[in-house]
């Protein structure tokens, strides 16, 4: 993996991926950086060298070993299948995740799925990834029957414009003034507030984000009939997603047994004693942090609190780990 292309290099995920690559073991001979027309011309510094970001174009991907796509669905739909004719593509958009011909991969959970790729590998949703990493080892031992989850998702998961909106609104809140939200990407004020809607709500009452967590989790775990109850909430946090999760299992489970299993699980850090994790603790880390592990209402149920950096393990780190699977 010596010739690398990144489409969406100026976005939050693209920038995070560049930082991870800069500190990685890879000896990169050629780096091609792409973005949409509005970001073309931007200069990016990588390993003491300046690179110009150019507008994404299919023919410019010829000769690369791998392409990372961190673009919105419309651009992914347009470019990914064409670029995949030249090289493997790891795509962060939701466009191909549920396509039966496209593997949806979390390396700690289903690394073997990458073997079935046809040059497109989908990177899951930034909430789905920490969820499946935490529940997968428990499923292997106790058999998952049902998941109840509420996510608390930071604004960076919605992109740079959303992050800037929160920072802008915070300035007004600090002065006890009401911010102008007329141009906000959110349905309401986000500062000093929580929004129980992420994406469009369908006729059944589920939001787009809730459907992603349900359908992607089933696909990754290989449990198409798994019952999942999901509520996704946007919160005024800059970086770091959290989930309050209760699982119901086929076998009896105890917090002690669950913690012992999670302590051995790849990519998981479990709090000891009465310690707890917050989204701030997860920032700039690649692991999924688990705390508040406790018995549910019955001996078949377990509740836990999960935190992860949505830009790293929820996006860029997972993509880089997929690439390592492809080129190991």
UniProtKB/TrEMBL annotation:
Pathway noted in the entry: Amino-acid biosynthesis; L-threonine biosynthesis; L-threonine from L-aspartate: step 2/5; Amino-acid biosynthesis; L-methionine biosynthesis via de novo pathway; L-homoserine from L-aspartate: step 2/3; Amino-acid biosynthesis; L-lysine biosynthesis via DAP pathway; (S)-tetrahydrodipicolinate from L-aspartate: step 2/4
GO BP term, example: threonine biosynthetic process
Domain of life where this protein originates: Bacteria
Reaction(s) catalysed by this chain's protein: L-aspartate 4-semialdehyde + phosphate + NADP(+) = 4-phospho-L-aspartate + NADPH + H(+)
Active site, UniProt feature: 126, 241
Keyword Signal annotated: no
Single Gene Ontology MF annotation: NAD binding
SMART domains: Semialdhyde_dh
Alphabetic keyword roster: Amino-acid biosynthesis, Diaminopimelate biosynthesis, Lysine biosynthesis, Methionine biosynthesis, NADP, Oxidoreductase, Threonine biosynthesis
Cross-referenced InterPro entries: Asp-semialdehyde_DH_CS (IPR000319), Asp_semialdehyde_DH_beta (IPR005986), NAD(P)-bd_dom_sf (IPR036291), Semialdehyde_DH_NAD-bd (IPR000534), Semialdhyde_DH_dimer_dom (IPR012280)
EC number: 1.2.1.11
Protein's UniProt keywords contain Transmembrane: no
Domain Semialdehyde dehydrogenase NAD-binding: 3-117
PANTHER family assigned: ASPARTATE-SEMIALDEHYDE DEHYDROGENASE, DEHYDROGENASE, PUTATIVE-RELATED
Family as reported in the entry's similarity comment: Belongs to the aspartate-semialdehyde dehydrogenase family.
Self-association and partners: Homodimer.
Protein name: Aspartate-semialdehyde dehydrogenase
Source species: candidate division WOR-3 bacterium
């Amino acid at each position: 993996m010596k010739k690398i292309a990144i489409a969406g290099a100026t976005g939050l995920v693209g920038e995070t991926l560049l930082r991870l690559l800069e500190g990685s073991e890879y000896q990169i001979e050629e780096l091609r950086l792409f973005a949409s027309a509005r970001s073309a011309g931007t200069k990016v510094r990588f390993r003491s060298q300046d690179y110009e970001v150019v507008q994404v174009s299919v023919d410019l991907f010829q000769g690369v070993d791998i392409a990372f796509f961190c673009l919105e669905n419309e651009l992914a739909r347009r470019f990914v299948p064409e670029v995949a004719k030249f090289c493997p593509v790891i795509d962060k958009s939701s466009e191909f995740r549920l396509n039966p011909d496209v593997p949806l991969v979390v390396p700690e959970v289903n690394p073997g799925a990458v073997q079935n790729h046809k040059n497109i590998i989908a990177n899951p949703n930034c909430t789905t990834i920490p969820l499946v990493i935490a529940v997968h080892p428990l499923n292997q031992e106790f058999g998952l029957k049902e998941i109840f989850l509420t996510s608390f998702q930071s604004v960076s998961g919605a992109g740079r414009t959303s992050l800037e909106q929160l920072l802008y609104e915070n300035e007004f809140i600090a002065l006890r003034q009401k911010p102008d939200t007329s141009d906000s990407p959110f349905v309401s004020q986000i500062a000093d507030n929580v929004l129980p809607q992420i994406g469009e709500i369908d006729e059944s009452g589920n939001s787009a984000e809730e459907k992603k967590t349900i359908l992607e989790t089933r696909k990754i775990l290989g449990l198409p009939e798994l019952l999942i109850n999901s509520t996704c909430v946007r919160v005024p946090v800059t970086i770091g997603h959290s989930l309050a999760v209760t699982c119901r299992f086929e076998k009896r489970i105890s917090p002690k047994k669950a913690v012992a299993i999670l302590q051995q699980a790849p990519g998981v850090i479990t709090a000891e004693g009465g310690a707890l994790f917050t989204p701030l603790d997860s920032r700039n880390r690649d692991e999924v942090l688990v705390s508040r592990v406790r018995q549910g209402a019955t001996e078949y149920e377990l509740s836990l609190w999960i935190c992860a950096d949505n830009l790293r393990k929820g996006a860029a780190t997972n993509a880089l780990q997929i690439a390592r699977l492809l080129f190991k």
